[in-house]
């Protein structure tokens, strides 16, 4: 019997880094059914509309799409059902306190297998305004241009 080791990415939410300013991240386990895990092993999931909410002292992941497993039977899962996140009580209390501050939300950044178990990288984030997004794009373009100029200079092209 071979055990999985290491970290294998399933899905990532690149849009979250564009739409939000990431303040802090946590790794959380996810409570899944068997057909969900089989579907994830095929690398099928979407985190784009995902977010996490606190309900009854627990954190639940909403809006994450895990398509039905094709070989599944009547026991197949609902693709967009809410899923419980597994965190330590102290981490949950910290997240509850920070989300009640106002303007902060929890978004999934990445879903992956870690030693055979499905994990989610959960971020505490603040939404960016339109001008913040434009400033980030301008800064990234300027940095890229500086690196190009340095590269040309070191190669002796200028």
Give structural notes.
This protein folds into two domains: about 5-125, Small Protein B, Chain: A (Beta Barrel); about 130-158. The protein starts with 6 loop residues before the first strand and ends with a helix. By secondary structure, it is of the alpha+beta class. The protein has a seven-stranded antiparallel β-sheet with strand order 1-6-7-2-5-4-3. The chain contains four helices and seven strands, in the order βαβαβββαββα. The radius of gyration is 19 Å and the shape is globular.
**CATH third-level topology of the largest domain:** Small Protein B, Chain: A
- Proportion of beta-strand residues: 25-35%
Strand order of the largest sheet: 1-6-7-2-5-4-3
- How many distinct beta strands? 7
CATH evolutionary superfamily of the largest domain: Small protein B
CATH class of the largest domain: Mainly Beta
User: What integer value in Å does the Rg equal?
Assistant: 19 Å
What is the helical fraction, as a range of percent? 25-40%
Order of helices and strands: EHEHEEEHEEH
The total tally of domains equals: 2
How does CATH name the architecture of the largest domain? Beta Barrel
Biggest sheet descriptor: 7 strands, antiparallel
- Total DSSP helices: 4
- Euclidean distance between termini CA atoms: 59 Å
Low-confidence stretches: none
- Tertiary shape: globular
Mean pLDDT: 82
InterPro entries: SmpB (IPR023620), SsrA-bd_prot (IPR000037), SsrA-bd_prot_CS (IPR020081)
Organism: Fodinicola feengrottensis
Pfam families: SmpB (PF01668)
Subcellular location: Cytoplasm
């Amino acid at each position: 019997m071979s055990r999985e080791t290491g970290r294998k990415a399933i899905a990532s939410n690149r849009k979250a880094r564009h739409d939000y300013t990431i303040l802090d991240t946590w790794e959380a386990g996810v409570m899944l059914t068997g057909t969900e895990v089989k579907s994830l092993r095929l690398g099928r999931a979407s985190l784009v509309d995902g977010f996490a909410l606190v309900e009854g002292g627990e954190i639940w992941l909403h809006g994450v799409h895990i398509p039905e497993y094709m070989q599944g039977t009547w026991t197949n899962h609902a693709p967009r059902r809410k899923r419980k996140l597994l965190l330590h009580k102290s981490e949950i209390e910290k997240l509850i306190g920070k989300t009640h501050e106002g303007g902060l939300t929890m978004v999934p950044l990445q879903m992956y297998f870690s030693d055979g178990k499905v994990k989610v990288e959960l971020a505490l984030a603040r939404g960016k305004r339109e001008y913040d997004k434009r400033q980030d794009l301008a800064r990234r373009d300027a940095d890229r241009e500086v690196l190009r100029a340095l590269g040309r200079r070191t190669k002796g092209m200028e």
